[in-house]
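Lab notes, practical 5.
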Amino acid sequence: MRVEQIVEAVRACARGGEPQPEITAILKAHKCHPLLKQTNSQADMMERAVNISAVKERYRACEFFFKNAEFPYAVVKGAVLSEAVCNDPFRRVSGDVDILINRRDADKAKRLLRESGFVQGRVTDGRIVPFSRKEILFYSSASHQTAPYIKKTQSLLCPYVNVDVNMDILWGESEERADMDAVLSEREKYTLLGVDFYKLTPEMEFIALCLHHYKDMNSIYLLSQGGLSLRYFCDIYFYVKNVMPSVRQIAGLSSRLNVGRYVHVCLKHTMEIFSDPILTPYIGALEHERNDILLNSFGLNDAERKQWDIPLMERLFHPDLPGYIRKFFTDADLEKININRENM
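Output from the prediction step:
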């Protein structure tokens, strides 16, 4: 299919149309669950049942943390995002639990997770291998999160539970740091499968979602490994469509956190793909934050930023974007990519 045909088919699906087999394959490859029709087929029902079991295992493994955390935290992405964009917490398949905290509470979070049976490590040859001190320091110094935590379970469907502890809604390459006290003041209680915890309010959750996807669509490391995904924009579009977060509050919080330019980029790209006027008020409220350099480039800071020479639709559905963008990389970029590949 030509790019123009793919985009038109995506828009038709967003309006409620039935995806044809060729576009279904593309949507599955991009993990665009809200655009895929859920059926009562045995395969779909089995996949959902397995996901429910896995989600239950993950959140119960974190229940001690949720009950005993005496510092602000919020669960982000995963099942809570699935409910927002798919109207179903079990529609999207997620491999971990993401917890957002303030950097100053990292040691407290580490203690609670260790008391819950988690270790910082990875599964190698069927066993958990703790990260080296070098790897742990790499995560804390070069990214916005700690080295991941993992715990073995008794479940065949979810043999390991992974927890990512995020200490910022901005990325490691950013010259700025978000006011995490302000971010975590915007949270609310949530219950999933009998487990109580905190999540962000809809407006802050939407901002965090945009920043997460901005990071993924601009990271030279992630682009070099897999390219862009329609899922980023699908999440943003359906969050607005299903939740209808307050335009005024999003504009105010974005300004307070000094992140409006990144949220605006995400909304403009999403509008280019879906062409739905439901997005217009959100874009208009952030138009004063417009940054044309960010709209047409990739890279997460000024030092590594490069200007795109192909339009959004072409790079979104490019057959080999990692290969295409290699021409942009400097020796410093390639060194960074290799370091990330070795340590992530």
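Observations recorded by the TA: Residues 21 and 27 are 10 Å apart (CA to CA). DSSP finds 18 helices and ten strands in the chain.
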